[in-house]
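Before the break, one more example. Copy the sequence into your notebook; we will annotate it together after we see the structure.
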Amino acid sequence: MKRRDLLISTAAALGLSQLPLSWAIAADKPKRKILFFTKSGGFEHSSIKRNGDQPSHADKVLTDLGKEHNFEVVCTKDGTIFDKDLGEFDAFFFQTQGDICTVGNDHQPAVSPEGKKRLLEAVKAGKGFIGSHCGADTCHSPGHDAGGQRQNQTEVDPYIAMVGGEFISHGPQQVARMAIADAKFPGLASVHDKDSADSFKINDEWYSLKNYADDLHVILIQDTQGMKGKDYERPPYPATWARKHGKGRVFYTSMGHREDVWSSAQFRDVILGAIAWTCGDAEADITPNIKQVTPGAGVMPPA
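Here is what the structure looks like once it is written out:
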């Protein structure tokens, strides 16, 4: 059997038949190690909340995906981990919230100022970073927490600058349409709905975002037409993207509030693609396209 046929056969056996061949080839890559960090300074989402020592729903989903796709997951809410050696991790996955540099409402140890600096330096030096949902509602820019301004700010927190966008607010949970701007990005090949080649619909809590980096490569676009709530009274805007931060690869998606989203095929494929790309096991053209595919991204919702 030829190597290509063997890889396709292996992919089918692993339930990967709908994923690009590069997923099967990724099995030849070294086993990766992902730090899944879920500390909450303020509101703790139910998908990442633990019952005593039991792992959260998101912990379980990501750990199981790792067992299936050749990567190890270390789940923690302890911010002191960033004061330790970060060299063992290939990428950092954040579903965090609020000021993670204080103990906060989840009573977990805070990230030290030096630890935050070490994280940013590690990504800039070549580590991968993945943020989901409230990963953009973390380490807010100056003035945000005082008034939650619905405008782009001239001073942006270094963490937000790395992520490439910042949470403003959100409306009611609802089914919304994600328009696919880049179907060639790893993991996106099978994400679309059966009756649409360029979009899918899913029920989640949708973030309205601001402070977009100019170099975003937009992957998914929030289609605001017909959405309920003033937060979405704005033109379509980036909801999932990729960018380079120094030598590091950064990925963010606004999806991930609900447990059923974490368990959905769409979200799992998006996350698997993000992990493969941020760890360097898959390649993608991430030429900045924010001005072309979301020209109204800078238009803010009404106060």
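Residues 265-278 form the longest helix (14 residues). Residues 136 and 166 are 5 Å apart (CA to CA). Try to locate both features in your own notes.
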